[in-house]
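Hi P.,

Sorry for the delay on this. The queue was packed all week, but I finally got your sequence through. Input first:
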Amino acid sequence: MKAITFNLLAWVMLPIMDGFAKYLSSDLPVLQITWARYFFTVAFTLPIMFFFFRKNLVWTDKPKLQLIRGLILLTANVCFFYSISIISLAKALTLAFIAPLIVTAFSPIFLGEKVGFRRWAAVIIGFIGSMVVIRPGFVEINLASLAALGTGVMYGFYLIITRKLSSSDNPLLTLLLTGVVGAIIISFVMPFVWIEPTLSQWSMMAAIGIFACVGHLFIILSLKYADASKLAPFSYFEIVTNIIIGYYFFSDFPDKWTFLGLFIIILSGIYISRRENIVKRLK
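Then the structure:
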């Protein structure tokens, strides 16, 4: 029960971060908002790690893989923050939900895992679900929708690398290094795009980092009590918080096609998760 509670709390915290990012995107550059997400996350995470988890901060054996992971997540964050600056939170998140399908599709290549016909079928059905949301040929495809899909693709590869690192590096160290890599890289761009924030905007930028920090710590705590594969279906709870925030603060409510595509993607994702659990038990 602890694992589920912590996991659900994480999927309440992270959409709040997205809501602040969407609100700020009307006045501040997406790259500056992304910088805030990384800078303040590291600023709040580092003291927590130092005082409570110092023993876990053993240097990585795979620094190159950690660097690549950080770069991929940074790209995913830029794509997602850009997409929600244009389209609704719910639509962007729905398209980003293709990440588990990407993991399944590429795990034979990068992880050496076998993927059977049923899981391949679920991947194809999930991709069809994303096409239902975009409706190419019926609705003009915009860059924001493609960026949201790109978020899912990047996050899928991020999860694959996370799996590879899980056998060697402590997850807390991985969380910290990912934040540091992103913060350093995005900081080099800031002099070219920076707009001086107001006091209110500074507080919201800091809130983005706080909610990102707390959300990811809840995920780590949930993984102490249950396997990631068992908790995977609960990640779809994020769409509930997402829809509530989008409707209440931005007057955005998903249309029937977004709901249909979301339903298809979630079903395929849950099926893949269940199949992975079955395969693990049979080994």
